[in-house]
Amino acid sequence: MATWNVNSVKQRVPRLLPWLDQRQPDVVCLQETKLADDAFTALLGDALKERGYEVALFGEPQWNGVALLSRVGLEDVAVGVAGAPGFPHIEARAVAATCGGVRVHSLYVPNGREPESDHYKYKLEWLAALRDVLEAGPADALVCGDINIAPTDADLFDPEAYIGQTHVTEPERAALQAIEALGFHDVVRDRWPTERIFSYWDYRAGMFHRDLGMRIDLILASSSVAPRAKAAWIDRHARKGTGPSDHAPVIVDLDEAPDGDIGPVVPPPSSPGSKKKVRLPQAK
């Protein structure tokens, strides 16, 4: 299965469909689709059906939007996170369904923008509601998506560069740890505990080519599902070339690994990263 923030599915069609044909994932969670449901269906409905996918959607024009594609069943679809706040209205940030006996959540967690802002408080409240939903949910579950939190400093190219930024603050990490405390395992990090692994690189300042990224796209598996993981990796190749998303897909193979246990990042980073101090493009 895979999760991928495509940063506008309309712009990413030339990348998405060939990628589906290449990797052949059974379940795909997409985030930041930026399309209303009817527009998504008009754009991709036939192409996905031809490839054997059932589709669950929760979208909105221009912003946010999540999707769940499955070739192993799509049952009990639910949109949104029960009890989660809006900002001020409910945003299209979560869709869940049971796929092949596993409850799969495709999530686009609020960004938070700046620590202590209203957006930041919204993010923490949203994550608390998500934790409650997961605690009440089935034992067999996968939490997938753009979580917008780097779990530890090891998931950043340079922790000092992120001081004063969201995604790395203690309350955000504590909210993620509260979800993991329910028995969820970060399967990529469990498989590769000491490797340099990123899933997101800013478009600006050559961050991707210098391999100056962060790991904020996660797949968390419940304690009953995590032992089934045979491979876990980032498909960095999908971030290369013309018209990419600024995120790369995260792939976890359960039960069998068609590509083998091929490493944490495929292909390897093109650069080991800069030894010079780097200022984030968004830093004030």
Given the structure, what is the number of helices?
A: 5
> What is the name of the CATH architecture?
4-Layer Sandwich
Indicate the CATH topology: Deoxyribonuclease I, Chain A
Could you name the CATH class? Alpha Beta
Which terms would index this structure?
single chain, 284 residues, alpha+beta, Deoxyribonuclease I, Chain A, 5 helices, globular
SSE layout and pairings?
Blueprint: E1 2-5, H1 9-23, E2 27-31, H2 37-50, E3 54-58, E4 66-70, E5 75-79, E6 94-99, E7 102-108, H3 118-136, E8 141-146, H4 170-180, E9 185-186, H5 187-191, E10 217-221, E11 229-235, E12 250-254, E13 265-266
Parallel strand pairs: 1-2, 7-8, 11-13
Antiparallel strand pairs: 1-12, 2-4, 3-4, 5-6, 6-7, 8-10, 9-10, 11-12
Helix pairs in contact: 1-2, 3-4
Report what the structure shows.
It is a single chain. With 284 residues, the chain is an alpha+beta fold. It has a single domain (2-253), classed as Endonuclease/exonuclease/phosphatase (Deoxyribonuclease I, Chain A), CATH 3.60.10.10. 23% of the residues lie in helices and 23% in strands. Strands 3-4-2-1-12-11-13 form a 7-stranded mixed sheet. Strands 5-6-7-8-10-9 form a 6-stranded mixed sheet. Strand 3 and strand 4 form a beta hairpin. Helix 1 (9-23) runs parallel beside helix 2 (37-50) and helix 3 (118-136) packs parallel to helix 4. It is globular, with a radius of gyration of 17 Å.
